[in-house]
Structures are given as C-alpha cells and as structure tokens.
Amino acid sequence: MQDDYLENIDMLPDHMHEAMIAWIETGRVPGNFLSSLLSNNLFLTFHHADQTNLAMIGDYINYLYNYTPGECWGSPDKVRAWKERGGLA
C-alpha cells in the first residue's frame, strides 16, 4: 500500500512525476500548480495550470485521493505539516 503512489504515478503527466514523488517522499515544496492543488486552492490551481495539467486536474484528484498519504494534501495546514515533517522520510 505504501508504494501505491509510485506504482500509479503514470496517471499524471510525465513532466510532473519528479515533483510529485519528491513532495511525497521528502516534503520538497513543488511549484505553484502542485502547491495550490495540494493545498486545495481551486482558484490558484486553475490559474497556475498549463494546458496539460488543466486537462488532467480530475486525474490528479483521483491520484491524490486513492494513492497518496492523506496527510500530504487537502489543506494549507496539512501541506505545511507535511513539509515540516519531511515527507515520508
């Protein structure tokens, strides 16, 4: 179960794999799009999305909900705590 985020990373665009994995594993803060998405800020998520990510926001939500630790996304407080924790490491 713990490696589900790796096994299902192909649900996301290739150019976002490294940032998402680094976020989950080490708490390294990603760029504006992922930070907004992880913090559950819908307006900024759409604002910062490139065309590829814009079309795949539903896939991101599915991926986060089903395959990542619930503590690493969902609100600014959760994102802050995950960063301070250093991710799974």
What descriptors fit this protein?
89 residues, mainly alpha, 7 helices, globular
Describe the protein in words:
- This protein has one domain.
- The chain contains seven helices and no strands.
- With 89 residues, it is mostly helical.
- It has helices spanning 4-7, 17-26, 32-38, 42-48, 51-55, 57-67, 76-85.
- The mean pLDDT is 96.
- Helix 3 (32-38) runs antiparallel to helix 4.
Choose one word for the global shape.
globular
Q: Per DSSP, what share of the residues sits in E-state strands of 2 or more residues? A: under 5%
Main pleated-sheet profile: none
Structural class: mainly alpha
Q: What is the quaternary state of this protein?
A: single chain
Write the layout of secondary structure elements.
Elements: H1 4-7, H2 17-26, H3 32-38, H4 42-48, H5 51-55, H6 57-67, H7 76-85
